[in-house]
Amino acid sequence: MRILRSALAIIILFSSFAAVSESAKSLYKKGVDADARQDYEAAYEYYKAAYEKNPKDLKYRVPYQRTRFLAAASKVHRGQKLREAGKLQEALELFQQAAQIDPTNDLAQQEIRRTQQMIGQQTQTQAPAEPKQPRAEDLLRKRLEQARPPVELAQLSDIPITGLKMENDSKIVYETLGKLAGINVLFDPDYTGRRIPIDLQHVTLREALDIVGMESRTFWRPVTPNTIFVAQDTPTKRKELEQNVIKTFYLGNSGGSSTSNTDLQDVVTSIRTILEVQRIQHIPSQNAIIMKGTPDQIALAQKIIDDLDRAKAEVVIDVVVAQVRVDTERALGISPPQNASVALQGTTTAASGTTSPAFSFQNLEHLTEGDFAVTIDKATAQLLMNRSDSQILQSPRIRATDNEKAQLKIATKIPIVTGSFGTPLGITGGASLGVNTQFTYLDVGVILEITPHVHPDGQVSLKTSLELSSQTSSVDVGGGVKQPIISQDKIDHTIRLRDGEVNLLGGIMETSETKTANGTPLLSSIPILKYCTASGIELRSVAQPPKAETDQQSGRTQQVQPATSPALQVQPTASGTVQVQPDQKQSQPAANPPAEDSSKAKPPPSGNNDTMSFRLSPPKISPAQGSSFSIEVVLSNARDVHSIPLQITYDPNVLQFVNVSNGGFLSKDGQQAPLVNRNDPTTGTLQIMAQRPPGVGGVSGDGTVFNLVFIAKAKGSGVVSITVPGARNSQNQPIQALGSQAAVTVN
Length: 747
Known about the structure:
six-stranded antiparallel β-sheet, alpha+beta, eleven-stranded mixed β-sheet, elongated
């Protein structure tokens, strides 16, 4: 019984070990299948589970590390889709998961910050902000906090002046406006007033003060919230009286390297040149800029920095290098005897061991057939077929930043003799120096250098240098030194590709054919008899030196939004972040897909009204306060539509505009339709423009043009209306269209 239990325990133990090993293999196999389907999130999870079960096996570690970036990018892509649909919390969870998978993914961190800001703005509309608790600070910090900010004039009445017409001294005009605005007016002792005519209609009090300053060549600045100081407008007075503030700007995408430090210096130079500011200094170690200037100059500097300090686009390039060689050798035929000789029989052996004929003149008259020996070469038959195939394949992947060179080197260093020296001639005695050989090392293998540049239209230019080299043999150069013979294939050129496009960089096919025939003259030329009287060798070699295919996938920062999602692209955001995201199993469109001809446009559906119209769907919606919702702009009865400019109005007291995205109608044939928009949250006016590429035809039919996302800001009723519907055909001619509206009731 004990023996049975021991055997059973051993069987269970071995089976458990086998189960663990099979489990890791099974997970790895599932990961390979998911990777082939481009389901990178599932592939990452399977590879990770397999790696955790057997962390020492590189077979599991390499794919686990490789799919981290792809899985994180996939989650970022899905999170962006959820955010566009107004699901901010679900999108934030996906962004956080992406950052947890790949902590080096700056895009995920940027999306987390942006989504948290959107959630915070949404929360502020629902509940008032809690008062901040005071913090204990040291004396210096308190003094800094007690320092007064630049004085600003109190809010003046926005009611326009119905009429102010007078011609008097500029001081009296200033005092009159001061009494109307309820503020005090002080004058510089050096200022002398002059008589000016004033006729103001429908302007505010602040605008009236600015107009009077322009007319009298003076300027004013606030001294207290209800007091202004007026002086002559000269550079000396402005420098003496204008307020100055100091601010430190921290840049997030410039600095940290030699190239980035150059970018930081470019920002400083731009501010100094445009704003004419002299007191500005950059701190490369902190990626910061310190500036002293007027409040207006500081505000403009902030705008310039926000425009220039943006993350650079990144490009992911998949390179496939293939080299094929096929050698075929065929030997066929019969070689007849080529040589024959006749010799006399009878020989004598000398003391040296050599033999020679032993005939005298008396024996010549008695020669017979038996006295001669005939020697004939043997005949040979050849029947041989030899074929050899060789393939060399490299598939590196390289990731590069816009306008910065990236290099990939997979090579072996081979020593090359560059020179030698020994004991000079004429020197004798003493120790000999011998021969000293000098070497240098040459990289032999795959060397790839790529400098990408992302264009505003989304295309990418690649300045490419690809070198493939290998050691074929060596040669003796004397003195016991052998030099390697290295074959090299290199290509240098610049190409321009669309996002996800595959391009063949270069390649040369070389075919060599050699035929050798041996046989009897004349007989070896007879068509059938030549196979019995001759032999031949036919050698054929087909070589394809390296061809490189590049599949570039890029991202960029721009205010133009692509209508389609290529393999890797950047979705533009309000903060200007770069978003690199893979698409799942998406086939690339043709290089120039044919546009739908306007002359062959499909007729509109039967009905009484065939006029093109825009419709908001749904026409009625009742969202809860604080929630987000979407409205589709649907186009009906379209014919040869090439561009769509719309003006949409909404109630800014009830609704808050969040985002607009393409609906896919203008890109139904694979062409991209960039989208731009401008929103005025004060008046609730939204301008949207989408246009197909120049030179292609328009599209016809029905479909969704835009997707609008709003937040229900406050309770009440409002209307979203297409106030100015518009469209143009491929000939840039306007098309008549009708608009519509949707009723929104916030509960």
